[in-house]
Amino acid sequence: MEVVPGLHWVERIWDTKVYILVEGDRVVIVDAATPGRAGAVWAHLASLGYSPEAVDEIWLTHADIDHMGSVAALQSDSGAQVVAHRADVPLVEGLSDRQLGPLPLSGAYQRIFNWVVRRMFRPATVDRAVGDGEALGGWQVVHAPGHTPGSICFHHPSRGILLVGDALNHRRGRLGAPPPMFTSDMGQAHASIRRIAALDFEICCFGHGPPLSVNARERVRAFADSLI
Ligand SMILES: [Zn+2]
């Protein structure tokens, strides 16, 4: 599905959203879904008339298994450069464990979670570690930590598009903050939502749930105002 010209949503991957940006000669994949999904991304790309070698960059909104699961396969098939926030680089490269939310028994739960991730996930090399405010063509990196330390959004101010990853989700018609169980710092996650709400945009695309293309900023602002 083409959300707006040049911004494609790989709808075959139903659980986590993967987007393909086509801007002139430049092709970018945003997020890498769960492990084993490279074929679905390539099938969608082929339907747009491109081969894997056409991909220039793979941008990761954050280093969770459902957003970076196929990154190594996508990288090796295409030769594309992987871009992630510097705080999440050790997770993408398999050098550190994911910090989950502070829960009862979180130490034991975290060990099991990370054991499963290590078995399922093939790490990748980050070619470009970015920080807040960096430009990626017409897009800007917006640091939105909380869910993970290196969660980022991609904002295209002149086109009014915002890709939020999991800093916000849109499930069953409602906006939501990232789930506390998988959010290393909930206070920071709420502060990031307020920061996102202050940006200028008309279209908002999520890591989970369909894009909002009508009154997106107003909806996000109202949600941010509702957070305590
Ligand atoms: Zn996710």
Describe the model.
The chain has 228 residues and is of the alpha/beta class. It contains 7 helices and 14 strands. The chain starts with a strand and ends with a helix. Helix content is 28%, strand content 23%. The chain has one domain: 4-Layer Sandwich (Metallo-beta-lactamase, Chain A). The structure holds zinc ion (ZN). Zinc ion binds next to helix 2.
Q: Care to give the gist of this entry?
A:
By secondary structure, the chain is an alpha/beta fold. The protein has helices at 38-47, 65-68, 71-78, 89-92, 106-120, 186-197, 216-226, and strands at residues 2-4, 7-9, 19-23, 26-30, 55-59, 81-85, 128-130, 135-136, 139-143, 152-156, 161-163, 169-171, 174-176, 203-205.
The CATH superfamily appears as Ribonuclease Z/Hydroxyacylglutathione hydrolase-like
Q: State the helical fraction.
A: 25-40%
Please state how the strands of the largest beta sheet are arranged side by side: 1-2-3-4-5-6-7
Low-confidence stretches: none
Describe the secondary-structure layout.
Elements: E1 2-4, E2 7-9, E3 19-23, E4 26-30, H1 38-47, E5 55-59, H2 65-68, H3 71-78, E6 81-85, H4 89-92, H5 106-120, E7 128-130, E8 135-136, E9 139-143, E10 152-156, E11 161-163, E12 169-171, E13 174-176, H6 186-197, E14 203-205, H7 216-226
Parallel strand pairs: 4-5, 5-6, 6-7, 11-14
Antiparallel strand pairs: 1-2, 2-3, 3-4, 8-9, 9-10, 10-11, 12-13
This protein binds zinc ion.
Overview features:
Metallo-beta-lactamase, Chain A; 228 residues; 7-stranded mixed β-sheet; alpha/beta; binds zinc ion; 5-stranded mixed β-sheet
